[in-house]
Amino acid sequence: MTTFPKDFLWSASTAATQIEGGWNADGKGESIWDTLVHDGTGKIAHGENSDTSIDFYHRWREDVALMKQMGLKAYRFSISWSRVLPEGIGKVNEAGIRFYQDLCDELLKNGIQPLVTLYHWDLPTALYRQGGWKNPASPDWFAEYADVVSRALAGRVRYWLTFNEPQMFCGLGLVAGVHAPFEHNDDVAMMDITKHILLAHGRAVQVLRKNCPGAKVGMAPTGDCCLPKDDSPEEVEKARQKSLSEYPGYIMSNTWWADPVFLGQYPAWAKEKFGDLLYPMTAEEWTLVSQPLDFYAYNCYQGTVDIVPDPSKYDAYAYQGSPQTAAAWNITPKVLYYASKFWFERYHLPILITENGYSGLDCVMLDGKVHDPQRIDFLHRYLREVAHAIADGIPVIGYSVWSLFDNFEWAAGYSCRYGLIYVDYPTQQRIVKDSGWWYRDVIASDGGCL
Ligand code: NOJ
Q: Could you name the domain of life of the organism this protein comes from (predicted)?
């Protein structure tokens, strides 16, 4: 029998671009995920876009009612920067501010704690046109945005996350060119970009501390957690070292981002690898970037496994025919145990799992319901590993399923579904999947039924 703390944050997650729609409603400005997708780059599956998505911008009241029925204790969502500041800086869009204030009020009225992410990848186009994260002014822009949002939501929001997955918006968007803004920057440019994002994080933390006394502040990184072949101390140590290395490439790695933010220093491997090419930092900048945070948030889906004796051959595809999701991600429940352990032991902060979930090819069945036993089994197995971590004394303070709804999965368009709630896109009808009702029962039993 599993014991989760009474105040455990049982949550589900979304992001503005993926659910809101209303891409130009009520004074919203454009983000790179509007402008560059409309430009017909051909980079999104089936030429899809997020113009309407699940129309949360207009349907949020009914959607909060569903959250209430599911018994969520918390709801993680992101703010659309260009909805509140259409040009990224300067003029504030009051309608955008009101939208997020009303949403928070409705959540609080229903006993649901808002967990707010400031940046989930949707850079305002006006700032992109000025160079985006390459521009040394970008930390100032982000501080201004954080100030506007946190003053508007102070007293309503306690939990804040600055950036979602810098690994991915940099790795996929600025190096591999498969996410907006579809760029291929070299190492020299990535040094500046990294530094600006780290400084922007630090500036936002300062602003949040000032405007929201008592706030709980963190960042939501991802990164590969490598799994040991077995639970022997030697294998666990090997997997830990690999997880803290530059694997699977420095921008995508854990420690490129987490060591500066949580330890106030470059990872040792980075000094060796880059030498003088590394972005320079003054003592004041290190202090800014590494201000104390309240938890280590982590987005976690799959672990990578050592498939051959050669430790450089870690791979997500464990063996021929290994179990996978619709997005071809490995099903490896133990990653939630080992990631919680490795990050806690390195950074000494409570762990908040900000994303974990299963992509499927769900559909409405003859009985009008959406049966998704694979997702239930996936969540069940992964949550047991959270329980395992807690039982081992690792303070995990919350868990957020990705995602509350089916939604726009970036370059993959609408091709796979992550939701606990099914969305029929042409009619916008919502149907809570079996997994959504299952999650309600898990929450109602404080995880006791797992
Ligand atoms: C991580 C991202 O934060 C989220 O936006 C995305 O949809 C999920 N992973 C699934 O790919």
A: Bacteria
